Every structure is written in structure tokens, then in C-alpha cells.
Amino acid sequence: KAGVTQTPRYLIKTRGQQVTLSCSPISGHRSVSWYQQTPGQGLQFLFEYFSETQRNKGNFPGRFSGRQFSNSRSEMNVSTLELGDSALYLCASSLGGGFRDNEQFFGPGTRLTVL
Amino acid sequence: QQPVQSPQAVILREGEDAVINCSSSKALYSVHWYRQKHGEAPVFLMILLKGGEQKGHEKISASFNEKKQQSSLYLTASQLSYSGTYFCGTIIQGAQKLVFGQGTRLTINP
Question: What's the N-to-C CA distance of chain B in angstroms?
């Protein structure tokens, strides 16, 4: 079975721009979660999508948004980029019950650098 | 609400044992353990649920003290492949967010 894939793997943007990251979960997984990882703040939960609906949301500003498509693929969008948005963005998928009771499979991440 | 992990870092020789602790000030629904090697994605180790259920890999041992809201991960007879940063994540009862601790960096030397 193919693992979680994320595209692009690396991205460089400038302040004020917007960016869209993509995640394809493991086949059959309907729950997709997004995390931001930085050296200072560690791993922080952004949001979870299940069956095209946002099921849970972390404490991030509205500039961070996402969506999920009918094939469970998910996108995350960050608008009006700030320097502090530079981070590794990880996507994780899990079985239908979601991450509360099931293991998550993480993708390799997208390294975003904001200049 | 972020769980506190201890120690922050530990260095072992191959074959030695280690215990990594994770504690929360809130009543927990579950504790999740992941290991991340440098430059790689986190990999699932174990989930410990309120009530005693555990899901994880057979070679990993962990405990969850519901009275103290503490969990411990036990690494016995450590191997070089155990090196990495270990994260505990907690879900508070009634909540839906998984909050990770700052991580424990484990280094295994030959």
C-alpha cells in the first residue's frame, strides 16, 4: 500500500504571498490531519478533515485553511504569509474513526520557507 | 495544555534501558507515542486509552496512570535504531485536539 504523499516537498515564498499544500492519504483512510512543526513550537495540530468536513481545529489564525475532496485528498492553504509561517507542514491520515483512537500515518512533509 | 515530557534528552549505550515520561495537568482520554528520526516523518508507536486499552507495536512497552495523568514509554535493551526524538501526544477528555509535548531526544551510542 502506498504511504501518505505530500506535494511539493519544498517551497520558498515571500511575505504576503499565499501557498497551497497538497496531501494524498493512504487508500481507504478518510481522516486527514495537518500539523505544523517548528524547532521552537514543536508539533502543533492545525486541523482534521473527515468526509470533506473539518472535524477539529487547532489554535491557528484564519489565514490557515484547508479542505478535503471526495477522494479524501486534502489541501491546506496559508494566505498572507508571514516569516513565522516557515515550518515543516506534515499531513497524517488515519482510519475513519480519526486520530483519537487510531494510529496516524505521516507523510514526509512540505518544507515551507518564507523570505 | 501541552503535556510535559521528561527527560528532554538522554544518551545511552546500546543495550541499556530508558524510560520517557509524559504528564498532563488535565484528565486525559488518550496518550499517543511517536518517534521521529532526523529528516523523517513521525512514526506511530503506541496509543494508550482511558480504561486500559492499548494499541501499538508488540515490541514497545508503555503505561498510562489515569490517576496521575501520566504515561511512560519503556525502551529496553536499546538498539541503535531506537535513536530519534520521541513525542507524546495527549487528548484531553471531552476534547478533539491532539497536543504534542516538546519531545525527548534519545541518542544511542555503540
Answer: 37
